Amino acid sequence: MYLKENLKLLRKRRKRSQEDVAKSLLLTRSAYNSYENGVAEPGIYVLIRLSDFFQINIDKLLRNDLCSLGEQQLSQLEKGFDLDLTGTRLRVLATTINTQNEENIELVPIKAKAGYTTGYADPDYIKTLPAFNLPFLSANKKYRSFPIQGDSMPPVSEGAFVTGEYIQDWNIVRNGHPYIVITEEDGIVFKVLYNRIEEDGTFLLCSTNPLYVPYSVKVSSILEIWKFVNYINPKFEDPKTTESDDIGPAIRMIQREIGLIKDKVKNIEEKI
After folding, report:
1. Which of 59, 226, 238, 244 is buried most deeply by CB count within 10 Å?
2. How many domains does one find in the chain?
């Protein structure tokens, strides 16, 4: 176990004394000192408090030598991003296959959209979804189609279905590209993402419609991310109502800057 080394490392990274940490945990200084020096082992309730205080899960506090990690990995852990340090943890993705033993593309109907955030990992729920195949997509990747509501992402309009490629490692999300993001709070959203995992453990979500304000989502609140592949639109769009190729990227850049400024102002207000 690496508890004593990890406690000392995390405390020093926060520039806190043993007495400060002990007070925050409702412990005596001598009790906390004994944990850092390996003289005593904390009980389960103290372990929970230590985990909450340092924002590192108990398993990593006990089993992983955090001193061996690089600055980037440590920073992400402290921001609440639960890294797979061993390379063995995989996000569970329920899926279905066709009669040729090939993975289907499940389609989430609008009527099933609300239930997806609770059923996304349930094989029985996924089996109830309509399924189809597109021969021009890679057989080595996983795809799913989601309904789009609202007018925040032209030229994709309300009523369209967006197909996404499942993303296992969220660190590879590319700035300025469209993704489907699944969260418990907002459900299924289709947005242009900006990866800020290293900075503050969040993604900035922007719309292609400039009327919609960008907003941040913590990595810890995200259930799934799917990279945009294509979409099926039942409507014929008037070319005059869509953004030109020249204006679109400029508007998205302005949106991104607005989102960053809003977050900075919010952080300043919280500190006052």
Report:
1. 226
2. 2
Task: Please give the Cα distance from 110 to 87 (Å, whole number).
Answer: 36
Output the six-digit token pair for 191: 């947005």
* Helices 29-36/3-13 angle, 10° precision: 120
Per DSSP, the three-state class of 103 is: strand
User: Do 265 and 157 fall into the same domain?
Assistant: yes
Give the count of alpha carbons within 13 A of 171, CB side only: 10
At 185, list the tokens. Answer: 């709070």
**Residues 246 and 112 placed together within one structural domain of the fold:** yes
Residues 184-234 pLDDT 10s: 889 999 999 999 887 877 899 999 999 999 999 988 778 899 999 999 987
Q: What share of the chain is helix, strand, coil (3-state, %, to 5)?
A: 40, 20, 40
Q: Does 220 lie in the same domain as 113?
A: yes
Which residues form the domain of 110? 105-271
Same domain, yes or no, for 71 and 116? Answer: no
Pair 149, 188: CB distance under 8 Å: no
pLDDT over 90 percentage in the chain: 53
